[in-house]
Amino acid sequence: MTQRLYQYVTPFIYPLFPAEVGALVVNYSVQNVLTFLTAPNFNGEFTLNLAMFSDGQERSREAVAIPVEDGVAEIPSIVRRFQGEGLGYVEVGIVADRPAFTKVMTVQGYGLFVQPGRGSMTFGSDLKFARGPIIEQIARFGVFCMQHTASYVDKSRNIGNSLLLINPYRQPILARLASSSGGQLRQRIDSHCAVMVPVTTLVENGNWETVMITANNRTTVFDVRHAYDDPNCLNNIDHIDFMNGWSTHDRRSPPRVARLVARRLGRAAGIYLS
Amino acid sequence: MVCVCFETTRGTIERHLADPNNNYDTLVESTGVGTKCTACLLDLDLVVHEATGQHADSRVVTDARPVAQGHGIKVPFDQSNSGLLINRDGITTHIRVANFGPMFQSMPYSVNYRYRVLAVTEDGRVTARARGAFGFGEDVSIDLGALPGVPADGWFLFDLYPQQEGFMGSIRPQIALVGPGWVTTYHPQYQSVACRGRGIVLQGVDGRFATAVHLINADRRETRLEFRLRSLESDFTANFTRTLGRYASALQDLDQAFPGAPRNELLDVFVASDHPVRKHVVNRLSDGAMSVDHFPNFK
To answer: Given CB 3.0 to 4.6 Å as the disulfide criterion, which of A82, A137, A186, A220 pairs with A126?
Structure first.
């Protein structure tokens, strides 16, 4: 049976902040995509597409042609710096000149956010579409749902927290946010826009809370930690989790079950830590 | 007109929902509203909310059944998470885990959990333990700094044991480092997806990287680690090697490891090891706040 191949890999979405806040650095490893997702000794041409959206407008777009010979990319990785005029996002995706990829998902892309005079922070990007657990979630629960388990604000200690909602699609999105203490909020995100939503109206001051987000389409959400009195003074960016539609159990062959049981017994007896 | 595709008016929707035997699902089934071009979903949501007090996007299938993937014998998925632990200089480490259904709604296949926490010193000794349980609809905060014997620096294991089959749902933990005037959170990873080699990008600010790589060797064997630093903007390369004992961890400062590296260039730091090692990148900001993320996994 021939393996199904795809012509594209799902784009990564990176959050973009105004230039006065800092710069986004994206390093896309073309060679990683080749190593994990194509047949050995692949020959052909990839095109890496990089687009920057800020304040709802496309501000830049670049297509980089990358010849591949015997599984080696002429340009193994692409590095670009982005600075937005306002809030936005950067979308980076790769297509081949013919079906070439065994999966549409690849190793998570990482970004670097550099704040002059303050420091840098590393964070993982999110995927524009095709994330298996989200497809499974919608199939099982009939609803799109993201969740963040550790929302926290403390005004007296100047600890702030916001969610950055990004809509990289062509239709507007209406999102609803709810917290474990009963807070509710609705937020519209226009096409190709990003919106920072402070969680101060959702969670109680000084309490750890869970915040959930649903919407009429999937939306990309990042957790942003910042000073309470200055949302531009960032100290952490991270993607948030999806409500997972997978089972707590999986099925394994008898030898693998035996190894797992041995490992767990060893753990319980203190022979192994993990 | 709300839905042009199916010629559904506001009056049609309101009349349909006025019948107590009807609901949003029957509206969609009988009219098809909102299922073609989807442009009307925002307006539809407002009309449905005015008519019923419910949101069109709040439908949750609450009788969904979990499906165990793969072939063979059904066993609980191995949820053994590891992460870095700091308990000094006013910084504490907290584990947060929540057990809710989608949008806090109930599910017939909800799961209760037991958990186990081990706190391990940098030289590989388990000095603090805790066990507990929580049910569906609960969330838990575990302040590792409050456990007797917890080390100043090290790592932890957090194992989750589902008591019956259900959905994973919201169970993925979050780890919060709480400092004086800041909070940072990161996702712990399954120790089973630790890898032998992965890299991240790095750039100095004001002449310093202010970046460290946290390493966890959850294996019974000592491992040798090689850090390969490569500039993405010049020909600069440098290597640094170290070892890590069994069950040991370390916070490797990259300014100390690579004193001669250019701080103003973008660099790739690749960390390779003899056997799988869990890695996190820890950035320190000028005001002392931290940013943490895990290295990519093997998949």
So the answer is: A220
Q: Which two tokens stand for residue A255?
A: 């030898």
DSSP-H helix ranges across chain B: 10-18, 24-31, 41-52, 254-257
The residue range of the domain holding A191 is 132-239
Q: In tens digits, what is the pLDDT along chain A, a chain of 274 residues?
A: 577 888 999 999 999 999 999 999 999 989 888 888 888 889 999 999 999 999 999 999 999 999 999 999 999 989 999 999 999 999 999 999 999 999 888 777 899 999 988 999 999 999 988 677 777 777 788 788 999 999 999 999 999 999 999 999 988 888 999 999 999 999 999 999 999 999 999 999 999 999 999 988 889 999 999 999 999 999 999 999 999 888 999 999 999 999 888 888 888 887 788 7
CATH (domain of A89): 2.60.40
Same domain (yes/no): A92, A16: yes
A122 and A207: one domain? no
Which residue of A190, A211, A236 is the best one to mutate when testing the B interface, meaning the one whose CB has the most B CBs within 10 A? A236
**Distance in Å, alpha carbon of A117 to nearest chain B alpha carbon:** 6
Residues of chain B in contact with residue A216, where contact means CB-CB under 8 angstroms, are 38, 41-42, 45, 56-57
Interchain CB distance below 8 Å, B42 and A253: no
Asked if residue A115 and residue A15 are part of one domain, the reply reads yes
Question: B66–A235: do the CB atoms touch at under 8 Å?
Answer: no
Q: Is A249 on the interface with B (CB under 8 A)?
A: yes
Number of domains in chain A: 2
Q: Does A24 touch chain B (CB under 8 A)?
A: no
- Cβ contact B104:A212 at 8 Å: yes
ipTM score for this prediction: 0.93
The answer to whether the CB atoms of A208 and B176 lie below 8 A apart is: yes
pTM (predicted TM-score) = 0.90
HSE toward the beta carbon, residue B80, CA cutoff 13 A: 17
Q: Which of B75, B98, B157 sits opposite A210 (nearest CB)?
A: B98
Q: Are residues A115 and A28 in the same domain?
A: yes
Does A38 fall in a domain?
A: yes
The verdict on A157 and A233 lying in the same domain is: yes
